[in-house]
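Quick question about two entries, pasted in order.
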Amino acid sequence: MTHGIRRILCCVGLRGDCDLVLAQAVGLAQATGAELHVLHAVKSLSDDVLNTLKTSIQDRQMLESLMAQRLDQARQELDERLAAFWSRYPERREAFGEREVTCRVLEGYPSSVISHYATRTGSDMIVMAANKRSFTATYAGKVTKGVIKRARVPVVVVPTRQD
C-alpha cells in the first residue's frame, strides 16, 4: 500500500536564514503535488515573566494587547520572510504555480506545538531545520529533537549551510 504525501508542514524559525528549509519544503510539495503549510512556533513566556508583566501592567486590556502584538509581529515577520523567499527565487514561485501556501504562527512549547499542529492538520510530513551550526553527532537542536520524538509522520531535517 502506497501512502501519498498530500500535506507538508514546513516549520521555520525567524532568527536565521529560513531559505534552506523553505526551498526543501517547496521542492517536496512540487514533486508530490502536496499542500504546503508554513508554521512558526513562538515560545511561550515563562511563568516568571508572565507574573512580572501582570504585576507591572495592571491594565488587563493593555497586557492582552501586548501579548497579541507579540504574535502579530511574528506573523508579520513570517509573511515578510516568505515574500522575500519568493522574490529571491522567482523560478520556484513560477514552478509552484498559483497554489496557496498557508502560514500560521502559534504560541506554546515549539516541539509540542509543531507536533500537535501536524496531527491536527493531517500533515503527512514535517520539514524543519537542524538548528545547529555544525552537522556533528548531535545534529539536531532541542526543538528538532522534540519534534522527532513526538511526530507521528516522517520529519525531514534540513542541515544548516556550511561555509
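Here is the second entry:
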Amino acid sequence: MANEVYTRTNQALFFTRRALDAWAEAESSDALDALSLVQYHREHALFHLYRGVLAVVHEVADRYRWPLVELRQVEAALLPSVVARFPGPELSELTELADNRETWLARLLAAWQQLQAPPLPEASANGLIASSAVKVGEWGLADAQEAWAALSERVRSYREGMVEW
C-alpha cells in the first residue's frame, strides 16, 4: 500500500493541513521569530500544496494508465496539448482552473513560480537580505486554506468519479 500513487496525494494533503495549522499559530504569535515562522510555514504549505496537485495528476494518470507519472512539474501536465493527447475530465478541469487567474490553482501556481524565482534585493532599506520568499500580501493563509479545501474536494470527487476512457 505504501507504494500506491494515492498515498502521495494523501500525504501531501496531511502535511499541508499541518503546515496551515502551524502557520495560523505563528501568525497569532507574539514571539520574536514569528515573522520568520510565518514565512517558513507559508513556503512549507505552498510546497505541499504544489506537491499535492502533482500527486493528483499522477494519481489520475495512473488510474487511466497514461504515461504522465514521470512528470515532475504541474505546469507540464496542465497544457492544452497534453489534455488533447490524454482526454479526461479531471485533467481538463485542472487545466481550466490553472488557466483562470482568479482560481485557487492559478494563484497557487503563481505563488510557486514566485517562490522558485531567483532572489531579488528588497527595494526598501529595511530588508538587508535578498529573499525569494513569497510576499505576504500575494499568498496568504486564506489563499492556502482555500487551495487546501478545493484540492481536498477535487481529490474526493476524482476518486469517486474516475471512469475508464
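Reply: The chain has a mean pLDDT of 87. Residues 29 and 35 are 9 Å apart (CA to CA). Hope that helps.
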